[in-house]
Amino acid sequence: MVSRVYLIGFMGAGKTTIGKYVARDMGWTYLDMDNVFEQEHNCTISAFFEKKGEAAFRKEETKLLRKIAQMDKVIVSTGGGTPCNNENIAIMKESGTVIYINVEPEILRKRLAPAKANRPLLANKSDEELLEFIQGKLNEREPFYRQANIIVDGDKLPFSSYRFLIEMNQDD
């Protein structure tokens, strides 16, 4: 029986909003990996990156993922790059169900544009540059995202359908 569900996808895909809804609907715990990381390390991910670099961050992220893989009845929102590093996608697939929330680049641009100031990777980008950035990153990440057990159209699938998909996938 599935007791862990990992939501993957690009920033702005809705992982947090969907994760909170589905966890509440199923009576499970919701975890946002970025928030858990920041609590455990007592600093923001940006500050951790600045002090120790991306390689150290990715190593710690994988350690956190292994810890989460031991928990039961959790819905986990991962960082956008989490599935693309180390053996992370394999850890997720071995320990639970992975759902890729696929959203078209133009929709992501519209969702992310108002929050550019709060996201260091997006700050100071024009709308056109933002769309190019999203498309480029998606091209890099798609091979990892596409390894998910379930791929959904994040712009069209109603939140209420996620529980059904998870329960239907319990025999896998």
How many strands in all?
5
For the sheet with most strands, the description reads: 5 strands, parallel
The number of helical segments is 8
Percent range for helical residues?
40-55%
Question: Quick gist of this model?
Answer:
This protein is of the alpha/beta class and 172 residues long. 51% of the residues lie in helices and 13% in strands.
Describe this structure as you would to a colleague.
- The protein is an alpha/beta fold.
- It is about 50% helix and about 15% strand.
- The protein contains 8 helices and 5 strands, in the order βαβαααβαβααβα.
- It has a 5-stranded parallel beta sheet, sandwiched between helices.
- Helix 3 packs across helix 4 and helix 6 packs across helix 7.
List keywords for this structure.
5 strands; five-stranded parallel beta sheet; 172 residues; alpha/beta
Helix and strand arrangement:
Blueprint (H helix, E strand, L loop, with lengths): L3 E5 L6 H12 L2 E4 H9 L3 H8 L1 H15 L5 E4 L10 H8 L1 E6 L2 H8 L14 H19 L4 E4 L6 H9 L4
Parallel strand pairs: 1-3, 1-4, 2-3, 4-5
Helix pairs in contact: 3-4, 6-7
